[in-house]
Design goal:
It is a single chain. This protein has two domains: 2-147, no CATH class; 161-213, no CATH class. The longest helix has 29 residues, at 39-67. A hairpin with a 5-residue loop joins β1 (161-163) and β2 (169-171). The chain has helices at 2-6, 22-35, 39-67, 70-79, 86-95, 109-117, 123-129, 137-147, 182-194, 198-213, and strands at 161-163, 169-171. It has a two-stranded antiparallel sheet. By secondary structure, it is mainly α. α3 (39-67) packs across α5 and α5 (86-95) packs across α6. It is elongated, with a radius of gyration of 34 Å.
Length: 225
């Protein structure tokens, strides 16, 4: 990741128009400083270095976009093989413009990208960072959790389908609770008198209701006169 970021460090496009930036100085000085660090501490500082490098470059790129003509800016992107990648860095610069790279050094690079890419969603989190004396990854996690909107529970869709052990399925009608037990009594009477199974009767009832809903059956009310 560090190598990728360093590969896009710009040199002077026009020595009269663009002076050496703080970003360039930062990246030139850091590799030498890191050589003297070893072991576990090296890994920790490298992570912080990546975050700061990303932010330095984002701010530098935003500055160049403001200072350069459109033609010069496009040439910068082409010369650094960075065309198409610049948008995410400009987002970072826009979102974290009130911070210094050192302020956010303890945030993981992926978190920086996530906050920038979803700035509307995480605006309360980003605003809250301004009030922290020390911005850490754990602090960001806590803020994200604190401002997370609870998801509305999705109503469960009733399903009559059940799975068999061999991967097939069958339908199972849930228990029918009625004070007068009319449905159960009627069904049992049909089973006893017609010699049909409950499944057969239910299948016929469903087919008749479907035909009625489709207009193939008409309900005729009995004339009591």
């Amino acid at each position: 990741m560090i190598a990728q970021v360093q590969s896009v460090i710009p040199t002077q496009i026009d020595s009269k128009a663009i002076a050496t930036s703080e970003f360039e100085q930062y990246v030139e000085e850091k590799p030498n400083a890191l050589k003297s660090v070893g072991g576990e501490k090296y890994s920790f500082l490298t992570l912080a270095d990546v975050t700061k490098t990303i932010l330095h470059h984002a701010f530098w790129l935003a500055e160049q976009k403001q200072k350069l003509s459109l033609k010069q800016y496009k040439k910068l992107l082409v010369d650094r093989d960075f065309r198409g990648e610049e948008k995410k860095y400009l987002k970072i610069a826009a979102v974290f413009g009130q911070f210094a790279p050192q302020d956010l050094a303890q945030i993981e690079p992926l978190t920086v990208y996530q906050l920038a890419n979803n700035s509307n969603k995480y605006k309360p989190v980003i605003d809250a960072l301004l009030d922290l004396s020390a911005i850490t990854q754990e602090a960001v996690r806590s803020l994200v959790k604190e401002h997370r909107k609870p998801k509305a529970p999705k109503p469960e869709k009733p399903s009559i389908w059940r799975r068999t052990k061999n991967g097939g399925r069958y339908c199972q009608i849930p228990a029918i609770h009625e004070e007068d037990e009319r449905t159960g009594v009627t069904l049992q009477s049909m089973i006893d008198t017609e010699g049909l199974s409950a499944q057969q009767i239910v299948a016929e009832a469903v087919a008749l209701r479907k035909a009625y809903k489709e207009g193939r059956l008409v309900l005729v009310k009995e004339n009591k006169n």
